[in-house]
Amino acid sequence: MSNLVRILCYPLGLMIKSFGITLMIRSRMGTDAWNSLYVGMYQQFGLTVGTWVIVFGVLIVLLNARMKRKKPDLFSLMTVLVLGLCIDFWLSILRLAPLERTEQVLLFWAGLLCTCLGISVYVQGRFGLTPCDELMYNLCHRFGLSLSASKTVTDGCALLFALLLHGPIALGTLIYTFLSGPLIQFFIPKIRRLFGKSR
Fold first, then answer.
1. Three-state secondary-structure class, residue 188
2. What's the total number of domains in the chain?
3. What tens-digit pLDDT sequence spans the chain (199 residues)?
4. Helix then strand then coil, % of the chain, to nearest 5
5. Cα dihedral sign, 176-181-187-191
6. DSSP-assigned states of every residue in 159-174
7. What is the sign of the dihedral through the CA atoms of 125, 128, 132 and 133?
8. Containing domain of residue 59, as a range?
9. Are residues 117 and 18 in contact, defined by beta-carbon separation less than 8 angstroms?
10. Can you give the pLDDT at residue 197?
11. Taking a C-beta distance cutoff of 8 angstroms, is the pair 174, 180 a contact?
């Protein structure tokens, strides 16, 4: 994969991922724990969903830097900035409000697939982890947790606060939890082969 293609994968993947997140939010069938937290913050305190993505992202980047005793990761900051702005952009133009259950289901699954596809594309850029993923790894190293336990802790905290804030926790949240990993694993080798042929 050429450097140019690798660099382009980063913003392209984030745009696709943010589009997928927006579709899941609009489906009203639930989304992942972290984005449910951001929607809950928006519903309770105003601002925008994307703004809360950026606010929490910056706080987690600073927490990660303190845990590692290093300077904040600029690529992590850039990731949450781009992702937050893209989510607000898509939410502003995709004013969907599906009433039929079939429409909600289709919208959710389209969002889930786009989100996982977007993640599979932007990781090809190899610019680093998102703040939440980096926090997961930092907890592993700091407290000797397994990766699975660390992810459970971070996602569990986000889920708890999302529930307290009445975020969109629903069946879709459960589906995302169990299927996002396998879907990303399914997409990554195919994306790698696709972009590998573009050299």
1. helix
2. 1
3. 677 777 888 889 899 999 999 999 999 999 988 999 999 999 999 899 999 999 999 999 999 888 888 888 888 888 899 999 999 999 999 988 877 899 999 999 999 999 999 988 887 777 767 788 788 778 888 888 776 677 778 888 888 999 999 888 899 988 888 888 788 888 888 888 877 654 4
4. 80, 0, 20
5. positive
6. HHHHHHTT---SHHHH
7. positive
8. 3-196
9. no
10. 54
11. no
- Are the C-beta atoms of residues 28 and 105 closer than 8 Å to each other? no
Give 155-158's long-range contacts (Cβ < 8 A, gap of 24+). 155/32, 155/33, 155/34, 156/33, 158/33, 158/34, 158/36, 158/37, 158/132
Residue type, 165: L
Amino acid letter at 199?
Answer: R
